[in-house]
Specification:
The chain is an alpha/beta fold and 253 residues long. The chain contains 11 helices and 8 strands. The strands form 2 sheets. It has a 6-stranded parallel β-sheet with strand order 5-4-1-6-7-8, sandwiched between helices. It has a two-stranded antiparallel ribbon with strand order 2-3.
C-alpha cells in the first residue's frame, strides 16, 4: 500500500463525525430561548460549514422569516435585513445569540455524535503505513476551535492528527487559502511536501473551494451534510468523489 499524498487534511463535521443531531438540538434550544421556531435536520444541514456565527445568522434569518410569514429561501441566507429587524426587536446582536448557542452546544455536543461507520476501521488500517511513509493527518474545520479539539480528543486521540485547527477570529476561515497556509506552518519541514501531495477531504463546497483556492487536491465525500448536486449547480468539480467512508483507503493506492 502506497500513496502519493503526504498530507491528508480532513474536515470534521460531516466527514469524520456525524454531529448533525447535536447541532440541530443545540440551535433549536437557542432559537427557543429567543422565541423563534425550530428548524429541522435537513434545514440545519444546509446551514452548516461556514462557522458558528454564520450558522446562527442563517438559523435566525430562516426561523424569523417563518415567524413573520415571509418567503424563505435556504440558498439566500443569511438575510441581513431580517437579521437587523430581529436584533432590533430583541435588543440583542449576533454575538449574544452565538454565545448562547456555544453554551448550549458545549452542554450537548456528545449526546448523539459519533464517528461515521467505517472511519475508525480506516484509521486503524493505515496506522502503520502512516508511520513508515511519514504521512500527516490533519484536521481543518470552521467549527469553533475549542469544540474541534474537544471532539478530536474524545473520538480520535490515538490517531495522531496534527495540527487540529478549528475556526477562530485570528485566521480566515475556509475557503480562504490562508486557512491552509496557517495549517502548514504547524508541520515540521512542510516545505518538503509538494502541493500535489496534499489532499483536502470534506463534505461541502467550502472544502472543495478551499482546495481549489490553495491549488491542492480536493476530495468530496457523499456521506456528510453537503450535496454533490449543490456543487454541480455552482460548477464546482472535486478531483475525487467518495461514496462511503471505507473508500478513503483508496487514496492510499
Amino acid at each position: 500500500m502506497k500513496t502519493k499524498f503526504k498530507l491528508f487534511i480532513f474536515d470534521l463535521d460531516g466527514t469524520l463525525l456525524d454531529t448533525i443531531e447535536d447541532i440541530t438540538f443545540s440551535i433549536n434550544k437557542t432559537l427557543n430561548y429567543f422565541d423563534l421556531p425550530e428548524i429541522n435536520i435537513y434545514e440545519c444541514k444546509n446551514m452548516i460549514g461556514e462557522g458558528m456565527e454564520t450558522l446562527c445568522a442563517k438559523a435566525i434569518s430562516y426561523s424569523f422569516k417563518k415567524l413573520v410569514k415571509k418567503k424563505v429561501d435556504l440558498d439566500l441566507l443569511p438575510d441581513k435585513e431580517i437579521l437587523e429587524e430581529f436584533f432590533k426587536n430583541k435588543n440583542i446582536n449576533l454575538k449574544i445569540f452565538t454565545n448562547y448557542m456555544n453554551k448550549n452546544y458545549n452542554e450537548n455536543c456528545f449526546n448523539y455524535t459519533k464517528p461515521y461507520e467505517g472511519i475508525i476501521d480506516f484509521l486503524e488500517k493505515v496506522q502503520l503505513i502512516r508511520k513508515i511513509e511519514k504521512i500527516n493527518f490533519s484536521i481543518l474545520s470552521n467549527k469553533p476551535d475549542v469544540f474541534v479539539k474537544k471532539m478530536v480528543n474524545r473520538y480520535f486521540k490515538k490517531y495522531n492528527f496534527y495540527p487540529i485547527i478549528g475556526g477562530s477570529a485570528k485566521i480566515p476561515l475556509k475557503p480562504s487559502k490562508e486557512s491552509l497556509y496557517n495549517l502548514l506552518n504547524y508541520i515540521d519541514d512542510y516545505e518538503s511536501i509538494k502541493f500535489n501531495e496534499i489532499v483536502i477531504i470534506g463534505d461541502s463546497k467550502i472544502d472543495v473551494l478551499t482546495a481549489k483556492n490553495s491549488n491542492v487536491y480536493s476530495c468530496f465525500v457523499k456521506w456528510g451534510f453537503g450535496s454533490l448536486k449543490d456543487l454541480e449547480i455552482n460548477q464546482i468539480y472535486p478531483d475525487i468523489i467518495l461514496e462511503k467512508p471505507h473508500e478513503i483507503i483508496n487514496l492510499f493506492q
